[in-house]
Amino acid sequence: MHSKTRRERVCLVLNDIRSVYNAGSIFRTADAAGIKKIYLSGITPLPEDRFGRKRKDFAKTALGAEKTVRWEHAPQILPLLKKLKKDGFHVVGIEQAPNACDYKT
Q1: Model pTM?
Q2: Which of 50, 71, 97, 100 sits between 20 and 30 A of 3, alpha carbons compared?
Q3: What local confidence, expressed as pLDDT, does residue 6 receive?
Protein backbone atom coordinates (compact mmCIF):
# COMPACT_ATOMS: atom_id res chain seq x y z
CA MET A 1 0.00 0.00 0.00
CA HIS A 2 1.22 3.50 -0.75
CA SER A 3 2.15 5.71 2.19
CA LYS A 4 0.18 8.59 0.69
CA THR A 5 -3.24 8.43 -0.85
CA ARG A 6 -3.64 9.47 -4.46
CA ARG A 7 -5.39 12.70 -3.42
CA GLU A 8 -2.39 13.70 -1.28
CA ARG A 9 -0.20 13.32 -4.36
CA VAL A 10 -2.21 15.85 -6.36
CA CYS A 11 -1.18 19.47 -6.48
CA LEU A 12 -2.11 22.35 -8.75
CA VAL A 13 0.16 24.70 -10.64
CA LEU A 14 -1.38 28.04 -11.57
CA ASN A 15 0.78 29.72 -14.18
CA ASP A 16 0.12 33.23 -15.46
CA ILE A 17 -3.46 33.47 -14.18
CA ARG A 18 -4.10 37.20 -14.55
CA SER A 19 -7.24 37.59 -12.47
CA VAL A 20 -6.94 37.66 -8.69
CA TYR A 21 -10.58 36.58 -8.53
CA ASN A 22 -9.95 33.53 -10.75
CA ALA A 23 -6.96 32.53 -8.63
CA GLY A 24 -9.01 32.92 -5.45
CA SER A 25 -11.87 30.84 -6.83
CA ILE A 26 -9.44 28.09 -7.85
CA PHE A 27 -8.22 28.00 -4.23
CA ARG A 28 -11.83 27.61 -3.10
CA THR A 29 -12.48 24.80 -5.59
CA ALA A 30 -9.19 23.07 -4.69
CA ASP A 31 -10.12 23.18 -1.01
CA ALA A 32 -13.50 21.57 -1.76
CA ALA A 33 -11.76 18.86 -3.82
CA GLY A 34 -9.24 18.08 -1.07
CA ILE A 35 -6.18 19.41 -2.89
CA LYS A 36 -3.37 19.91 -0.37
CA LYS A 37 -1.03 22.29 -2.23
CA ILE A 38 -1.06 24.92 -4.95
CA TYR A 39 2.00 26.34 -6.70
CA LEU A 40 1.63 29.86 -8.05
CA SER A 41 3.98 30.82 -10.86
CA GLY A 42 4.54 33.60 -13.32
CA ILE A 43 2.18 36.54 -12.89
CA THR A 44 -0.44 34.60 -10.91
CA PRO A 45 -1.55 36.73 -7.94
CA LEU A 46 -0.54 35.52 -4.48
CA PRO A 47 -2.79 35.48 -1.39
CA GLU A 48 -0.37 37.97 0.15
CA ASP A 49 1.07 41.20 -1.21
CA ARG A 50 4.81 41.78 -1.54
CA PHE A 51 4.93 42.94 2.09
CA GLY A 52 3.36 39.72 3.40
CA ARG A 53 -0.06 41.27 4.07
CA LYS A 54 -3.20 39.32 3.22
CA ARG A 55 -4.89 40.50 0.02
CA LYS A 56 -8.53 41.35 0.64
CA ASP A 57 -9.44 40.93 -3.03
CA PHE A 58 -7.97 37.41 -3.03
CA ALA A 59 -9.67 36.46 0.23
CA LYS A 60 -13.00 37.71 -1.10
CA THR A 61 -13.25 34.85 -3.61
CA ALA A 62 -11.09 32.25 -1.83
CA LEU A 63 -13.46 32.40 1.18
CA GLY A 64 -10.80 31.18 3.61
CA ALA A 65 -9.27 28.52 1.37
CA GLU A 66 -6.08 30.59 1.18
CA LYS A 67 -5.65 29.73 4.87
CA THR A 68 -6.27 25.98 4.56
CA VAL A 69 -4.65 25.06 1.24
CA ARG A 70 -0.86 25.27 1.38
CA TRP A 71 0.69 27.34 -1.37
CA GLU A 72 4.12 28.22 -2.65
CA HIS A 73 5.34 30.77 -5.16
CA ALA A 74 7.57 29.54 -7.98
CA PRO A 75 8.83 32.44 -10.11
CA GLN A 76 9.42 30.21 -13.17
CA ILE A 77 7.29 27.27 -14.22
CA LEU A 78 9.84 25.07 -16.03
CA PRO A 79 12.11 24.39 -13.03
CA LEU A 80 8.99 23.70 -10.95
CA LEU A 81 7.58 21.20 -13.47
CA LYS A 82 10.96 19.44 -13.69
CA LYS A 83 11.04 19.14 -9.89
CA LEU A 84 7.48 17.82 -9.73
CA LYS A 85 8.24 15.19 -12.41
CA LYS A 86 11.43 14.20 -10.56
CA ASP A 87 9.34 13.84 -7.38
CA GLY A 88 7.05 11.40 -9.18
CA PHE A 89 4.12 13.62 -10.10
CA HIS A 90 2.28 13.01 -13.37
CA VAL A 91 2.04 16.48 -14.92
CA VAL A 92 -1.12 17.35 -16.84
CA GLY A 93 -1.58 20.79 -18.41
CA ILE A 94 -4.96 22.36 -18.97
CA GLU A 95 -5.24 25.06 -21.60
CA GLN A 96 -7.90 26.24 -23.99
CA ALA A 97 -6.27 26.44 -27.39
CA PRO A 98 -7.10 25.29 -30.92
CA ASN A 99 -4.28 22.71 -30.83
CA ALA A 100 -5.00 21.41 -27.29
CA CYS A 101 -5.39 17.63 -26.81
CA ASP A 102 -8.06 15.89 -24.77
CA TYR A 103 -6.52 15.03 -21.38
CA LYS A 104 -8.27 11.62 -21.38
CA THR A 105 -6.38 10.38 -24.43
Answers
A1: 0.82
A2: 71
A3: 53
